[in-house]
Each structure stands twice: as structure tokens, then as C-alpha cells.
Amino acid sequence: MTNSKGLEGVVAAETGISHIDGFHGRLYYRGIDINELATHSTFEETTALLWYGKLPTARQLESFTAKIIESRLVPNEIIALLLLLPKKTTPMGVLRTSVSALSPFDPETRDNSLEANVHKSIRLTAALPTIVAAWERIRNGLWPVTPSTTLGHAANFLYMLSGKEPDPAAARILDQCLILHADHGLNASTFAARITASTLSNLHSAITSAISTLQGPLHGGANEQVMRMLLEIGDLERVEQYMRGAFAAGRKIMGFGHRVYKADDPRALWLERLSRDLAESTGNRVWYQMSDRIRSIVQSQKPLPVNVDFYSASVYYTLGIPIDLFTSIFAISRVAGWTAHVYEQYADNRLIRPESAYIGSLDMPYTALAERN
Ligand SMILES: CC(C)(COP(=O)(O)OP(=O)(O)OC[C@H]1O[C@@H](n2cnc3c(N)ncnc32)[C@H](O)[C@@H]1OP(=O)(O)O)[C@@H](O)C(=O)NCCC(=O)NCCS
Question: Looking at ligand 1, which atom is closest to the CA of residue 187?
């Protein structure tokens, strides 16, 4: 038996969905370099690629997109549930609770066939942006915006947040962000989804597990922490002093380091360009400039790759998205990958059940209650 803390270096599944070449900093979905996809594709098309294994034809994409649009409305009971939640509930907490609550409303909830799972995945992928945007409105005392029946996935999300049709350039930037976050090998939340699926529990349970796992700051929660750090520093001139303090205190810098990448994460390099372009087009350069300076200081001190969460923070912030929604945007995208992995798990399932190395005592006496102190 091998013992690997954090399962580092352990291969726990075979997958044909995405491949990370951590040494060269490359990422592929179904064999296609993500740079190609971020340049030419849309989130909807990338999702079809992940689920069906190849790029859809024009007709297939049209029908796939129409099905997602048709599924955008969530049951009224889910909106009623949101109205009952305490306003301090985090958007990721809202998503976790809502996906779990959606399960009994789904007509195919107990059917684990591939066909039913694709239908459920369409409904979930369509529902996640509606739920996050509805929560943002409800917690601000506003009524949710009815989803658009014409806008693309990213544009519709921005529309449902503000009630106004977004600038197409902003929508395209968010669309690219969604493409870049859609799948990433056996990351922690995907593993959680596969573990849940491996017990033959249903798709909604697997996605609920995945959302719970994504929200931690060592995983998807890092993008929110990056923005909080930028705001705490507040000024380009304060970056060096802040970083000296962080290193002296042995603090981890969010948005850096990765279990698999040794070279910079290719998604981060894309997001860096998006952050820079947004800084230029809006004239709001401070977050990009601070990020850039932080990166050069961190990488001059430690050989840490910059990861996906680092520049996504300044991109989302400059797009006007509230900080505590950042991780839920990750979930809105990653649901495409999670569901694809659930199909793979069911298709060749074996219960995922590692062992633990016991480090406690053995043969201890059972002391009667009255004799314990
Ligand atoms: C992503 C992450 C959890 C990977 O963890 P891991 O593979 O278990 O690596 P470790 O946490 O064991 O780190 C290995 C070494 O690099 C250092 N390190 C890793 N990430 C670091 C960071 N962001 N800042 C400073 N040092 C870091 C650790 O302190 C450790 O140093 P040591 O060997 O001297 O103790 C880790 O890099 C991290 O916490 N990053 C910040 C959170 C983040 O951005 N998460 C999003 C990931 S996409």
C-alpha cells in the first residue's frame, strides 16, 4: 500500500475529458488546446464538446443552445426558498442548497442513465446562473430578473444580475472566463463529484458535493481571496511592503501555487490578457497593475506558478461583479466538467474507497461510565 498525503501523484481515475500538461503549462479539453477554445468557441459549444466528446455541428449547437435557454427558469419553489434564506448566506451556500433542493423537482432525478443525466445536466447548467443572479437581486431587496430567451449563457447571466443587456465585449470576456474554467482533470471538486457518483448516488448529489468542495479558499474560493488582498493593499505603492509582510509571516499568497502545474497555468495567462485589456478599455488600471507587481514579486521569491484564480479576480471586479459571487461564477462554468465526469464515472464505475493508515491505539479497555474522569 502507498501512503500519499493529499493523494499527490496518485492516479485515481481514467478520463478522456481534459488533460493538463503541468510541466509545459498546457490544458486540453477533448484534445483541443484551451487557447483555441478561448479564441474561437463559446461556453455552450465547449460544454457540448465536454459532454459529447466532439465539437457539435451548427445544427447540433443550435438545438443544444435552445435546450439550455428553455431550461433557464427555475421552479418557483426554488425562488421561494431563496426568499427564506438568511441574507448573509454566501452565494456558494445558496448554490449548494438550491442544487440539492432542485433534485426532487427534476422529473428524472432517480434515473442514472446517460440520457437522463444529459437532460439533468442541461437543466442544472441552465439553472445555476439563474440562481446566483436571483440571489444577488433578492439579497439586495430586488425581484429576480426573468432569464432572457435570446442572449448567450454569459450575457444572460450579466443581464439577470443588473436587468440591463450587457455590453457585448463584457459578455464575451465572461464567456471566455467560463470556457477557461469548464474542466480541469481530477481537481478536488471533480473528485468529490466522482466519489459521490461512485456510490451510485444521483447527479444532483454529485454536483452538491462538488459545489461544497469548490468553495474552499485552497480551491475555487481563492479568486475571492485574491480580490480581498488587492483591496487590502489598496495602492500600487503599497504592494512591496505588503508582500514583504506576507512572506515574513509565512502566509500563502492566493492565486499562486498548484498541485499539477510547474509552469504558469495557461488559463491564468489568458486571464492576464483579459485583465490587461479591460484595464485599458475602462481606464481602471490599478487592479491589473497591482496584480502584475504582486506576480513579479512572488515569482522572484518562490518558483510558484500563477493559477487561474489570480487574474480572474481583477477581471470579475472590473466587470462590476460583487466579490462574493466570484466563486459561484467558477461553479456556473465547472458544472459542465463535473457532469461530464459523472457520466464517465457511471460508465465504468467502481466504488472509490481508499484506505487510511490508523495511527491510534489498539486494545484499549472500555471504562464504565461511573469510573471515568
Ligand atoms: C493550490 C495549493 C493548495 C496546492 O497545494 P499543494 O500542492 O498541497 O502544495 P503545498 O501547499 O504543500 O505547497 C508546497 C510548498 O509551496 C508553498 N506554497 C504553495 N502555494 C503557495 C502560495 N500560494 N504562497 C506561498 N507559498 C506557497 C508552500 O508553503 C509549501 O512550501 P514549503 O514546502 O516550504 O512548506 C497551494 O499552492 C495553495 O494553497 N495556493 C493558494 C490557494 C490558491 O491559489 N488556490 C487555487 C488553486 S487553483
Answer: 48
Looking at residue 186, the DSSP 8-state letter turns out to be B
Q: What are 20's strand-pairing partners?
A: 27
Q: How many domains does the chain have?
A: 2
Query: How are strands ordered across the β-sheet holding 32-33?
Result: 18-21, 26-29, 32-33
Q: What is the per-residue pLDDT across 55-86, written as a single tens digit (0 to 9) for each?
A: 999 999 999 999 999 999 999 999 999 999 99
pLDDT, tens only, 322-331: 999 999 999 9
Given the CA of residue 307, which atom of ligand 1 is nearest to it? 48
Q: Which of 279, 298, 318 is the last residue of a domain?
A: 318
Pocket of ligand 1 (CB under 6 A): 6, 218-219, 222, 252-259, 302, 304, 307-309
Q: For residue 224, how far is its CA from the centre of ligand 1 (angstroms)?
A: 17
- Strands 32-33 and 26-29 turn out to be antiparallel
Same domain for 229 and 179: no
Question: Which residue, by CA, sits nearest to atom 2 of ligand 1?
Answer: 258
Are 183 and 247 members of one domain? no
By residue range, what is the domain housing residue 44?
Answer: 35-213+325-347
Q: Which residue's C-alpha cell is 498548484?
A: 258
Regarding whether 173 and 54 lie in a shared domain, the answer is yes
What confidence score (pLDDT) does residue 1 get? Answer: 76
Neighbours of 253 (CB within 10 A): 23
CA–centroid distance, residue 351 to ligand 1 (Å): 30
**Residue identifier of the C-alpha nearest atom 27 of ligand 1:** 252
Per-residue pLDDT of 298-308, as tens digits, reads: 999 999 999 99
Three-state secondary-structure class, residue 184: strand
pLDDT digits (tens, 9 = 90+) for 151-175: 999 999 999 999 999 999 999 999 9
CB 17 within 8 A of CB 183: yes
Residue range 119-147, pLDDT digits in tens: 999 999 999 999 999 999 999 999 999 99
pTM above 0.85, yes or no: yes
Same domain flag for 205 and 257: no
The ligand 1 atom nearest the CA atom of 8? 7
In angstroms, what is the span from residue 250 Cα to ligand 1's centroid? Answer: 11
Check whether residue 226 and residue 340 sit in a common domain. Answer: no
pLDDT, averaged across the chain: 97
Give 356's contacts (C-beta < 8 A, 6+ positions apart).
none
Choose the residue to mutate in 258, 260, 269 for probing ligand 1, maximizing ligand atoms within 8 Å of C-beta: 258
Q: How close is the Cα of 331 to the center of ligand 1, in Å?
A: 22
pLDDT bucket at 287, cuts 50 / 70 / 90: very high
Which ligand 1 atom is at minimum distance from the Cα of 220? 46
